[in-house]
């Protein structure tokens, strides 16, 4: 009994029933190709940054105390002249527009700050309804010394301000991508024509960056892998036919891998993202080995009508599962 319990010889069935085997491969590949388009990518921040460091311990503590903070989107807006009438009006309009964006529960910024409540319990906004040049010095002084704004939502130099956007939970990354795109559009539209710059942060945007990186890495690994396969096959054989025969099994293997992954609902993470490249290497190595045997068979018996039979019977099982 071999290490593969005899399963390594299952490929010999294709020699006896080639058409039925080809039909079976097609019937399996087509649905798996569909399911390969449903492959999800893991965006779990905890798994990526998990460690025994003090910073990660603080992250866990904050997450336990404020479980909804993981849905927040942070906008860091900077300008050398943040406290101008034009910039403040744009920022206040941005605060209002973001509040009406899809998926937004609440927006907190320096425009959320209010004066201490009066005797009647009313608390007036720190910024007046109409901001004028005359109001700027007083408003700037008040906001820079406000205990809930200073060094939290506004930098001490008054050049950088923070918008905290509380989002609805979006477990589906595609829905989150749509909402994030709308937030970007609203922000860029409201800040257009000003000297203010914006940076996006928060775990929601990190999720998008992680998934985008995983998808880009996956495409890079697969594309570069296939290009290397084609190049090596051409250098060895100098024949389009042999190149196609060497590359086709790796294409099918990657489709099957992606299809089974999507069918099982398994998400691709940083570690499993390199598996398609490894599959390509293994399959191509086996393909090249068999093709060399086939060429040798043809060289020894040019008129052979079944040049695949001998190489597959003798070299196929050891290649698939070495003893």
UniProtKB/TrEMBL annotation:
Know the name of this protein?
Answer: Membrane transport protein MMPL domain-containing protein
**UniProt keywords, alphabetically:** Cell membrane, Membrane, Transmembrane, Transmembrane helix
* Primary location: membrane
- Return any one Pfam family short name: MMPL
Query: What topology does it adopt in the membrane?
Result: Multi-pass membrane protein
Which compartments is it annotated to reside in? Cell membrane
Q: Where is this region: Disordered?
A: 304-323
| TM regions (residue ranges) | 20-41, 214-234, 240-258, 270-292
Specify the domain of life of the species encoding this protein. Answer: Bacteria
What family does the Swiss-Prot or TrEMBL record give for this protein? Belongs to the resistance-nodulation-cell division (RND) (TC 2.A.6) family. MmpL subfamily.
Domain Membrane transport protein MMPL residue range list: 113-285
One Gene Ontology term, aspect cellular component: plasma membrane
């Amino acid at each position: 009994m071999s290490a593969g319990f005899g399963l390594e010889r299952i490929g010999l069935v294709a020699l006896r029933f080639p058409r039925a085997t080809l039909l079976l491969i097609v019937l399996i590949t087509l649905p798996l190709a569909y399911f390969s388009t449903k492959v999800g990518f893991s965006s779990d921040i905890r798994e990526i940054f998990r460690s025994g460091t003090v910073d990660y311990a603080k992250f866990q503590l904050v997450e336990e105390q404020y479980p909804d903070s993981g849905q927040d989107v942070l906008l860091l807006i900077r300008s050398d002249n943040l406290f101008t009438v034009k910039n403040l009006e744009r920022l206040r309009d941005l605060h209002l527009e973001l509040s009406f964006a899809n998926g937004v529960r609440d927006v907190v910024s320096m425009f959320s700050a209010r004066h201490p409540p009066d005797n009647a319990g009313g608390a007036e906004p720190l910024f007046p309804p109409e901001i004028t040049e005359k109001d700027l010095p007083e408003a700037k002084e008040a906001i820079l010394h406000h205990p809930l704004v200073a060094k939290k939502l506004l930098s001490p130099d008054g050049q950088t301000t923070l918008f905290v956007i509380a989002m609805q939970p979006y477990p589906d990354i595609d829905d989150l991508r749509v909402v994030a795109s709308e937030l970007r559009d609203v922000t860029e539209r409201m800040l257009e024509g000003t000297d203010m710059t914006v940076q996006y942060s928060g775990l929601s945007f990190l999720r998008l960056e992680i998934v985008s990186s995983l998808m880009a890495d996956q495409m890079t690994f697969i594309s570069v892998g296939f290009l290397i396969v084609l190049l090596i096959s051409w250098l060895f054989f100098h024949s389009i036919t042999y190149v196609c025969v060497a590359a086709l099994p790796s294409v099918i293997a990657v489709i099957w891998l992606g299809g089974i992954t999507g069918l099982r609902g398994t998400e691709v993470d940083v570690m499993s993202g390199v598996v398609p490249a490894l599959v390509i290497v293994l399959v191509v190595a086996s393909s090249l080995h068999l093709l060399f045997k086939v060429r040798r068979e043809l060289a020894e018996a040019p008129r052979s009508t079944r040049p695949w039979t001998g190489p597959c019977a003798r070299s196929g099982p050891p290649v698939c599962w070495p003893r």
